[in-house]
Amino acid sequence: MLLLVGPDRRDRSFWVPTETSSKSTFFRSIRNRLWPIGFLTSPDMRHMGRMGWRFLTSLMLLAAFMALLSEHPWVACGAAGVLVVLLSTRLNVADHVITAAVRDQEREKLLDYLEDRLRWMRERCDKVVIVAHSQGGFLAHQLMARHGGRNQRKVIRLVGVGSGLKPIWILQQARRPFVAAVAWVLPLASICLAWGTSPLFEPSNSAVAAGMLMQLTATTSSLALPLAAQSPEFGTTMMQGVAESLERIQSGILLVGDMTWDRWTAIAVSGALTVACGLIIKFRIAPDAKAPFVLPTPNGAKPLKWHEYSSQHDMVGRMLLPTLPAGVEQEATPVLGHPLRDHTTYFDGEGLLTRRLAAGLLMDVDSSTHWRLGGRRWMETVARYERALRKQHDRRRCFQAVLMLWAAFAVLVPRMARGATLVEAVLAGWLPLGLMTVVLSVVFTWRGRRSHRKMVALLDAELRGQLQADPPVRIVPPEYRTTTSLSLAIGAVLAFYGALWLRILSDLHPAWHVRSPGAPLLAAILLATMSAAACSGYRVKRRWAAGAALLAALPALTSGGPIGLQASGWTTAPGGTLAATVLATVVVAVISLSRARVVPFPEAVLGSTLELPGQRMAAGSGTEGSVISVSGGDHSSR
């Protein structure tokens, strides 16, 4: 659960504020909360959204497991049997983690073996670079910190990739009595708080959601009804529905008077336990955990360079806390954006990390010999493409998240409108939510793999001296996204409820001859997708938005009123108001799209083109053209 819902480096602004002044932090928070757009786009809101989505994901997984256990017990037992068999083989990763974390004697044997291998290398090599992945990152750190750092001789760099240093260290701390007490008491305090405040949140969520849905129902019914049928009685009924929905929302918010004494007691107990845990953390745990990962430096030795690489989604290496020494954690490595696949594909042949490590090797050779292999230029080129892939990755994952938000809206709102709480709606709708999560994950991971391969191919071409004419990635900056995404989102919601009312109108009043009532629903799906794309930074074409608006206007263009009705044709067409409203939102979005500008990635190359080391050697006079030989045992590679 800690690995699944724990904070990562994207949440750094929430957990580790960048402002040193409490005054600037206070005014920034006030500004973000008073300005609606600033609140929606603030780092705090994004952090709460990520944590809330992780909580709902874990809740959906729990509901899926309970449903599998209750409805298909034999399948659940078979899966448990396969798990037991795997835990009895060498694939038992959990036992490996336990060995590294709490089995001191076995861990010391591992470190003795690694120290012996390192001693063998020091006898044959002038300089050593250690690259450690996953649990190897923890063991390598322990090896470098052993015996006051005596193993650091000839080791110039320690590279951790998806390192398990932080999670294994946390598991080690769980053996301390105070840490174990806090680990058990804080969840108990959370349970007391959740139960005590449930009347303030669960009923209010359903009541507020139902009230807002009533308000939408009362106001959007006019989108489908022809103007000729909108009488004064219709306006009065609509205003009464709006007033009733507002009363329901107020009754859902103001529930403090319904709290009983036992719930107030649970809240007080939760507060007392939380304060006690905070005092224990501050005075007994935090002083021992201020600098847990600082490596000792041997006397007279130069400190080794320590770098840690991880993707933002790697569920092992992404953890934010506890912090590493300054300058150790590098920028997020673009991989795929998958919590499991990222951890195993760092060293893929088409990955960026292998090229960065190769550039670091060239820089080591440049700094320690008379050869000049252009390592710094290679590193700058790789860094440019890493920034481009990082921007592309963030844009793609934001697109996926907003699409999943629309899907969750479509699944949860009808259940919450019928009186279910948010948690109950998630538990009841775990199957469509889980199916949508898996489908979007597969599609976007496949798409990310393709774009990653394409970008790496372009990087290799540039490293060979073949510069690209056009940048492969073009992203709309955030300042040009808000108006477009909000306009398209409002149009999508109006088209959705307009299609709903057109369907009801065609069933209840066949004389109105409503045609193509499903066209606005298709327009709503298209507008919602374009809103998610615009919010993520994709360039949405204006003709796509115009086509969606034409779909929303299709019922008004093809339908007609009852025969013999003495009124203008445009007043008797069902969906005329819907078409005009959606068209207005699309016009605003098209104007905003016309003013949007894009930023190309990777950035343009300034100066001369790159040269391959082989090209440089061939062009030299012979003094720089040397051959590097790396030997190991009886094998030699050149």
How would you describe this structure to a colleague?
The chain has 25 helices and seven strands. The chain has helices spanning about 1-5, 10-15, 20-35, 35-40, 45-70, 75-85, 95-100, 105-120, 135-145, 165-175, 175-195, 200-225, 230-255, 260-285, 340-345, 350-370, 375-415, 420-430, 430-465, 480-510, 520-535, 540-560, 570, 575-595, 615-620, and strands at about 130-135, 155-160, 305-310, 475, 600, 630, 635. The protein has about 650 residues and is mainly alpha-helical. About 65% of the residues lie in helices and about 5% in strands. It starts with a helix and ends with a strand. Residues about 610-638 have low confidence and may be disordered. α5 (about 45-70) crosses α6 (about 75-85) and α16 packs antiparallel against α17. The strands form three sheets. Strands 1-2-3 form a three-stranded parallel sheet, covered by helices on one side. The radius of gyration is 30 Å and the shape is globular.
Estimate the strand proportion.
under 5%
The outline comes out as globular
Mean pLDDT: 78
Biggest sheet statistics: 3 strands, parallel
Q: Ranges with pLDDT <50 over ≥5 residues? A: 608-638
Could you tell me the number of beta strands? 7
Computed CA radius of gyration, to the nearest angstrom: 30 Å
- What spatial order of strands do you see in the largest sheet? 1-2-3
Classify the helix fraction into a percent range.
55-70%
Count of helical stretches? 25
The helix-and-strand class reads: mainly alpha
End-to-end Cα distance, whole Å, is 48 Å
